[in-house]
Amino acid sequence: MLALVLLVLGCGTDLTSAEKLGYLNADLCLMSTPARSGIAGAKTLWDELQYAHIIQVPYVHFVGAFLPFHRYFMAIHAHLLKAECNYAGPIPYWNETADVGNINGSAIFDVETGFGGNGTGAGGCIADGPFADLTLHFKEDLNTTDYCVTRSLNDRGLSSASQENIDTCLAAKSFTEIWSCLEGRPHGAGHGGVSGTMVNLFLSPGDPIFYLHHGFLDKLWWDWQVLNLTTRLTEIGGNNTASGRGGFPGGGPPGGGFPGNPFGPGGNSSFVPPPGFNTSNPFPFPGLGMEPNKAFTDYFYDGGNITTLNHTLWSVGIVQNITIGDVMDPRSGFVCIEYL
Ligand SMILES: *[C@@H]1O[C@H](CO)[C@@H](O)[C@H](O)[C@H]1NC(C)=O
Ligand SMILES: *[C@@H]1O[C@H](CO)[C@@H](O)[C@H](O)[C@H]1NC(C)=O
Ligand SMILES: *[C@@H]1O[C@H](CO)[C@@H](O)[C@H](O)[C@H]1NC(C)=O
Ligand SMILES: *[C@@H]1O[C@H](CO)[C@@H](O)[C@H](O)[C@H]1NC(C)=O
Ligand SMILES: *[C@@H]1O[C@H](CO)[C@@H](O)[C@H](O)[C@H]1NC(C)=O
Ligand SMILES: *[C@@H]1O[C@H](CO)[C@@H](O)[C@H](O)[C@H]1NC(C)=O
Ligand SMILES: *[C@@H]1O[C@H](CO)[C@@H](O)[C@H](O)[C@H]1NC(C)=O
Ligand SMILES: *[C@@H]1O[C@H](CO)[C@@H](O)[C@H](O)[C@H]1NC(C)=O
Ligand SMILES: *[C@@H]1O[C@H](CO)[C@@H](O)[C@H](O)[C@H]1NC(C)=O
Ligand SMILES: *[C@@H]1O[C@H](CO)[C@@H](O)[C@H](O)[C@H]1NC(C)=O
Ligand SMILES: *[C@@H]1O[C@H](CO)[C@@H](O)[C@H](O)[C@H]1NC(C)=O
Ligand SMILES: [Cu+2]
Prior knowledge:
The protein has 340 residues and is an alpha/beta fold. It has twelve helices and nine strands. It has helices spanning 17-32, 45-54, 57-60, 66-85, 155-158, 163-170, 175-183, 185-194, 209-226, 229-232, 294-297, 324-327, and strands at 4-9, 91-94, 119-120, 125-126, 135-138, 144-148, 312-313, 322-323, 337-339.
């Protein structure tokens, strides 16, 4: 099993310039490597990753599987870097707390050794750096067209990653508390602060910064787990449907959702429900083209509404299915990372 080391970008344990370039080039490699999982319309591995996120949006946000799914998804990206692009370096995450109040000065957006800067012009496309004019293909409804990755950097959004907000989350006493806390403000920080494609609930993995943001969020979950490994390596819960939370875009009571999450009602996400999307009942999502499917109607093998360790994590075949139980300990098994 691949061992990954997650390193912070933008503070004391920063990557060297050579390491940063190695990582950026590996992402560029994923963006130019032909698709191989049989997903119709996908041109590259990068498209396939984004597709696997788009198609599962209702099942992996504002639900108990939010943190485990994104840990799995982040690990898939890391595995592809290694398996498809011979990448052997560290996997960086973005310490967003360190950049609160100064997103414009963040090393993340460096034109030479970072992800390029703000969006420019009427369209807000990225104009400089390695991902200038990066072209994506899948839209929210899985139809294909060519469009660019956009950004609109702002400090208001990133301020949700304040140390105060992080400390509040880490004081959580249960999994459902840490999950809803992290999916609120800290999760909102990277998406809202970068904005553009990043604040689109469906399409956000199209911006390579997505993986650094979710690395940060996953580390925060791990930091919380480490506070009591006796219980927190197996502690899981939450509902499998978002409707009860009021947090699902377009659904639930106005003003509901996790505080600080830009995807909720009243947030600034560019979310537009795809045609046929039933916000009152996202099971099954028409875009899956595979309903009725017991895997979905049976809540990914949880046997009910409550998320369990038996919950299947799926990536449309990019890698094998695993369960939430398989990602609870990121130090071994499928994920296999060490946070530095
Ligand atoms: C992230 O940044 C904050 C604020 O600068 C700092 O206190 C913290 O130690 C950093 N975290 C890591 C893992 O470096
Ligand atoms: C962001 O930084 C760039 C230089 O890197 C500068 O040209 C621009 O004015 C800055 N924007 C803001 C809002 O400070
Ligand atoms: C998406 O594609 C389907 C089938 O190809 C088509 O019926 C539908 O109108 C398209 N939706 C949009 C918004 O273009
Ligand atoms: C990024 O660009 C948007 C407009 O495209 C602008 O509103 C915003 O202030 C810029 N952010 C920074 C940090 O310069
Ligand atoms: C871990 O949680 C268990 C169960 O709640 C508790 O009994 C134990 O004291 C906790 N350990 C620490 C170090 O907090
Ligand atoms: C699950 O849904 C129920 C019913 O809508 C709600 O009362 C409860 O707070 C939800 N639980 C969690 C952990 O979100
Ligand atoms: C699951 O929870 C949602 C939201 O709380 C509720 O609307 C739905 O009826 C529940 N479904 C089942 C099968 O219990
Ligand atoms: C959305 O953006 C507007 C202005 O751009 C701002 O006033 C508002 O606070 C933002 N809402 C959230 C939830 O971030
Ligand atoms: C959407 O789901 C709700 C709840 O299951 C159902 O009552 C309603 O008929 C559905 N709407 C459509 C258009 O299918
Ligand atoms: C993987 O999970 C998906 C979704 O739960 C399911 O449809 C599919 O049949 C599973 N595949 C295998 C090989 O178990
Ligand atoms: C756990 O999931 C598997 C499929 O992955 C299923 O066959 C089994 O029945 C599930 N177990 C429980 C207790 O629901
Ligand atoms: Cu997501």
